[in-house]
Write a structure and sequence with these properties.
InterPro entries: Beta-barrel_OMP_2 (IPR025665)
Protein name: PorT family protein
Domain Outer membrane protein beta-barrel: 38-203
Structural class: mainly beta
Distance between the termini: 26 Å
Helix content: 10-25%
Shape: elongated
Strand content: over 45%
Signal peptide: 1-17
CATH topology: Porin
CATH class: Mainly Beta
Number of domains: 1
Radius of gyration: 21 Å
Keywords: Signal
Length: 233
Protein backbone atom coordinates (compact mmCIF):
# COMPACT_ATOMS: atom_id res chain seq x y z
CA UNK A 1 0.00 0.00 0.00
CA UNK A 2 2.94 2.34 0.66
CA UNK A 3 4.07 1.91 -2.94
CA UNK A 4 0.60 2.90 -4.19
CA UNK A 5 0.58 5.99 -1.97
CA UNK A 6 4.02 7.04 -3.25
CA UNK A 7 2.80 6.54 -6.85
CA UNK A 8 -0.22 8.73 -6.09
CA UNK A 9 2.02 11.50 -4.76
CA UNK A 10 4.44 11.30 -7.68
CA UNK A 11 1.68 11.53 -10.28
CA UNK A 12 0.06 14.43 -8.46
CA UNK A 13 3.36 16.28 -8.12
CA UNK A 14 4.25 15.68 -11.75
CA UNK A 15 0.85 16.94 -12.86
CA UNK A 16 1.16 20.05 -10.72
CA UNK A 17 4.65 20.65 -12.07
CA UNK A 18 3.25 20.63 -15.59
CA UNK A 19 0.70 23.19 -14.44
CA UNK A 20 3.33 25.33 -12.77
CA UNK A 21 3.55 27.74 -15.66
CA UNK A 22 -0.16 28.43 -15.41
CA UNK A 23 -0.11 28.77 -11.64
CA UNK A 24 2.84 30.96 -10.88
CA UNK A 25 3.39 33.22 -13.86
CA UNK A 26 2.26 36.82 -13.68
CA UNK A 27 -0.47 36.18 -16.27
CA UNK A 28 -1.55 32.55 -15.74
CA UNK A 29 -3.10 30.63 -18.60
CA UNK A 30 -6.45 29.35 -17.35
CA UNK A 31 -7.36 25.99 -18.89
CA UNK A 32 -11.00 24.90 -19.34
CA UNK A 33 -12.22 28.18 -17.90
CA UNK A 34 -15.93 27.33 -18.27
CA UNK A 35 -15.71 23.63 -17.40
CA UNK A 36 -17.21 24.03 -13.92
CA UNK A 37 -20.23 25.89 -15.24
CA UNK A 38 -21.65 22.66 -16.66
CA UNK A 39 -24.72 21.37 -14.86
CA UNK A 40 -24.00 17.72 -15.72
CA UNK A 41 -20.78 16.12 -16.93
CA UNK A 42 -19.28 12.64 -17.25
CA UNK A 43 -15.99 10.85 -16.90
CA UNK A 44 -14.26 7.61 -16.01
CA UNK A 45 -11.68 6.43 -13.50
CA UNK A 46 -8.86 3.93 -13.22
CA UNK A 47 -7.02 3.11 -10.04
CA UNK A 48 -5.62 0.80 -7.40
CA UNK A 49 -6.94 -0.47 -4.10
CA UNK A 50 -6.16 -2.57 -1.06
CA UNK A 51 -9.03 -4.31 0.73
CA UNK A 52 -8.87 -5.49 4.33
CA UNK A 53 -11.24 -6.78 7.01
CA UNK A 54 -11.91 -5.19 10.39
CA UNK A 55 -12.50 -8.13 12.72
CA UNK A 56 -14.06 -8.08 16.19
CA UNK A 57 -13.85 -11.15 18.41
CA UNK A 58 -15.94 -12.66 21.18
CA UNK A 59 -12.83 -13.84 23.03
CA UNK A 60 -9.51 -12.01 22.39
CA UNK A 61 -6.41 -14.03 21.63
CA UNK A 62 -7.57 -16.12 18.69
CA UNK A 63 -7.01 -13.50 16.04
CA UNK A 64 -7.15 -13.68 12.26
CA UNK A 65 -4.27 -12.01 10.48
CA UNK A 66 -5.59 -10.30 7.32
CA UNK A 67 -3.18 -9.24 4.61
CA UNK A 68 -4.57 -7.18 1.74
CA UNK A 69 -3.08 -7.27 -1.75
CA UNK A 70 -3.10 -4.57 -4.39
CA UNK A 71 -6.12 -4.70 -6.69
CA UNK A 72 -7.39 -2.82 -9.72
CA UNK A 73 -10.36 -0.44 -10.13
CA UNK A 74 -12.24 0.87 -13.16
CA UNK A 75 -15.53 2.72 -13.44
CA UNK A 76 -17.66 5.59 -14.67
CA UNK A 77 -18.42 8.98 -13.15
CA UNK A 78 -21.57 11.08 -13.45
CA UNK A 79 -21.64 14.52 -11.81
CA UNK A 80 -24.57 16.83 -11.10
CA UNK A 81 -23.68 20.32 -9.94
CA UNK A 82 -25.88 21.39 -7.03
CA UNK A 83 -23.95 24.54 -6.12
CA UNK A 84 -20.80 26.35 -7.16
CA UNK A 85 -18.86 24.28 -4.64
CA UNK A 86 -20.99 21.13 -4.26
CA UNK A 87 -21.60 18.21 -6.65
CA UNK A 88 -23.64 15.02 -6.38
CA UNK A 89 -21.69 12.15 -7.92
CA UNK A 90 -22.55 8.60 -8.93
CA UNK A 91 -19.44 6.46 -9.51
CA UNK A 92 -20.33 2.83 -10.34
CA UNK A 93 -17.16 0.77 -10.50
CA UNK A 94 -15.62 -2.68 -10.77
CA UNK A 95 -13.04 -3.62 -8.14
CA UNK A 96 -10.78 -6.67 -8.14
CA UNK A 97 -9.48 -7.48 -4.66
CA UNK A 98 -7.57 -10.22 -2.85
CA UNK A 99 -6.82 -10.95 0.80
CA UNK A 100 -4.87 -13.63 2.65
CA UNK A 101 -6.40 -14.71 5.95
CA UNK A 102 -4.22 -16.60 8.42
CA UNK A 103 -5.93 -18.21 11.42
CA UNK A 104 -4.07 -18.80 14.66
CA UNK A 105 -4.17 -22.15 16.43
CA UNK A 106 -3.61 -24.40 13.38
CA UNK A 107 -0.51 -26.38 12.51
CA UNK A 108 -1.13 -26.89 8.77
CA UNK A 109 -1.49 -24.26 6.05
CA UNK A 110 -4.51 -26.13 4.69
CA UNK A 111 -6.46 -25.20 7.81
CA UNK A 112 -4.71 -21.95 8.73
CA UNK A 113 -4.65 -20.05 5.42
CA UNK A 114 -7.50 -18.85 3.22
CA UNK A 115 -6.90 -16.98 -0.05
CA UNK A 116 -9.97 -14.80 -0.44
CA UNK A 117 -10.46 -13.24 -3.87
CA UNK A 118 -13.30 -10.85 -4.60
CA UNK A 119 -14.85 -9.08 -7.56
CA UNK A 120 -16.93 -6.14 -6.38
CA UNK A 121 -19.46 -4.03 -8.23
CA UNK A 122 -19.77 -0.82 -6.24
CA UNK A 123 -22.66 1.68 -6.42
CA UNK A 124 -21.61 4.81 -4.50
CA UNK A 125 -23.57 8.04 -4.15
CA UNK A 126 -21.20 10.80 -3.08
CA UNK A 127 -21.06 14.50 -2.33
CA UNK A 128 -18.04 16.43 -3.53
CA UNK A 129 -17.11 19.67 -1.74
CA UNK A 130 -14.68 21.76 -3.79
CA UNK A 131 -12.61 24.73 -2.67
CA UNK A 132 -12.17 27.95 -4.63
CA UNK A 133 -10.25 27.31 -7.84
CA UNK A 134 -6.73 28.72 -7.88
CA UNK A 135 -5.31 28.88 -11.38
CA UNK A 136 -5.63 25.34 -12.69
CA UNK A 137 -5.84 23.57 -9.33
CA UNK A 138 -8.90 22.94 -7.16
CA UNK A 139 -8.69 20.70 -4.05
CA UNK A 140 -11.79 18.91 -2.82
CA UNK A 141 -13.26 16.58 -0.21
CA UNK A 142 -15.59 13.72 -1.11
CA UNK A 143 -17.78 11.45 0.98
CA UNK A 144 -20.95 9.39 0.91
CA UNK A 145 -22.53 5.96 1.03
CA UNK A 146 -22.36 2.91 -1.20
CA UNK A 147 -23.82 -0.55 -1.71
CA UNK A 148 -21.44 -3.21 -2.97
CA UNK A 149 -22.16 -6.56 -4.60
CA UNK A 150 -19.50 -9.24 -4.17
CA UNK A 151 -19.66 -11.59 -7.15
CA UNK A 152 -17.25 -14.00 -5.41
CA UNK A 153 -19.01 -14.21 -2.04
CA UNK A 154 -19.67 -18.02 -2.12
CA UNK A 155 -22.87 -17.19 -0.23
CA UNK A 156 -24.86 -19.97 -1.94
CA UNK A 157 -22.26 -22.65 -1.31
CA UNK A 158 -23.16 -25.42 1.14
CA UNK A 159 -19.47 -26.08 1.77
CA UNK A 160 -17.69 -24.03 4.40
CA UNK A 161 -14.21 -23.65 5.89
CA UNK A 162 -14.09 -27.36 6.66
CA UNK A 163 -13.93 -27.81 2.88
CA UNK A 164 -11.69 -24.69 2.54
CA UNK A 165 -14.58 -22.51 1.39
CA UNK A 166 -14.66 -19.02 2.89
CA UNK A 167 -18.14 -17.43 2.68
CA UNK A 168 -19.40 -13.88 3.04
CA UNK A 169 -22.69 -12.12 2.33
CA UNK A 170 -23.15 -10.89 -1.26
CA UNK A 171 -24.23 -7.33 -0.41
CA UNK A 172 -22.54 -4.86 1.93
CA UNK A 173 -23.12 -1.21 2.80
CA UNK A 174 -20.25 1.19 3.31
CA UNK A 175 -19.39 4.80 3.91
CA UNK A 176 -16.57 6.54 2.06
CA UNK A 177 -14.46 9.59 2.81
CA UNK A 178 -11.47 11.04 0.98
CA UNK A 179 -9.77 13.97 -0.66
CA UNK A 180 -8.32 14.85 -4.03
CA UNK A 181 -7.43 17.64 -6.40
CA UNK A 182 -8.81 18.73 -9.77
CA UNK A 183 -6.06 19.60 -12.25
CA UNK A 184 -7.20 21.48 -15.35
CA UNK A 185 -5.27 20.74 -18.53
CA UNK A 186 -5.84 22.20 -21.96
CA UNK A 187 -8.25 19.50 -23.16
CA UNK A 188 -9.36 17.59 -20.06
CA UNK A 189 -9.62 17.66 -16.26
CA UNK A 190 -7.55 15.12 -14.30
CA UNK A 191 -8.55 14.33 -10.70
CA UNK A 192 -6.38 12.02 -8.55
CA UNK A 193 -7.93 11.11 -5.20
CA UNK A 194 -7.36 8.86 -2.20
CA UNK A 195 -10.28 7.45 -0.20
CA UNK A 196 -11.09 5.20 2.70
CA UNK A 197 -13.99 2.72 2.63
CA UNK A 198 -15.55 1.41 5.85
CA UNK A 199 -18.20 -1.30 6.00
CA UNK A 200 -21.31 -0.93 8.17
CA UNK A 201 -22.48 -4.51 8.51
CA UNK A 202 -21.10 -7.90 9.48
CA UNK A 203 -20.33 -9.82 6.27
CA UNK A 204 -19.27 -13.21 7.55
CA UNK A 205 -21.43 -16.29 6.91
CA UNK A 206 -20.77 -18.68 9.80
CA UNK A 207 -19.76 -22.27 9.20
CA UNK A 208 -22.29 -25.07 9.54
CA UNK A 209 -20.69 -26.19 12.80
CA UNK A 210 -21.59 -23.63 15.52
CA UNK A 211 -18.27 -24.45 17.23
CA UNK A 212 -16.22 -23.95 14.07
CA UNK A 213 -12.65 -22.85 14.88
CA UNK A 214 -12.79 -20.49 11.88
CA UNK A 215 -15.99 -18.56 12.58
CA UNK A 216 -17.39 -19.26 16.06
CA UNK A 217 -15.19 -16.64 17.76
CA UNK A 218 -15.88 -13.88 15.23
CA UNK A 219 -18.26 -11.20 16.48
CA UNK A 220 -18.19 -9.26 13.21
CA UNK A 221 -16.22 -9.04 9.98
CA UNK A 222 -16.42 -5.75 8.06
CA UNK A 223 -14.77 -4.45 4.90
CA UNK A 224 -12.11 -1.77 5.01
CA UNK A 225 -10.31 -0.47 1.95
CA UNK A 226 -8.02 2.24 0.64
CA UNK A 227 -8.77 3.41 -2.90
CA UNK A 228 -6.59 5.49 -5.18
CA UNK A 229 -8.48 6.67 -8.24
CA UNK A 230 -7.35 8.67 -11.27
CA UNK A 231 -10.40 10.32 -12.83
CA UNK A 232 -10.58 11.88 -16.28
CA UNK A 233 -13.31 14.27 -17.45
Amino acid sequence: MKKIFVLFLLISLQSQAQLGKSLFTKDPIINLENFDKQRVYWGYFLGFSTFDFKTDYKIPGYDIDVKGHTGFNVGLVGSLRLHEYIELRFEPGLYYASRTLTYSGFTSDRDAVREVKATYIDFPLLLKFSSLRTGNVRPYLVGGLSSTLNLSSNSKSKDDNLQQKFRVKPWTQNYTFGFGVDLYFEYFKFSPSIRGVFGFNDELIRDNDPNSPWTSNVESLKTRAVLINFTFH
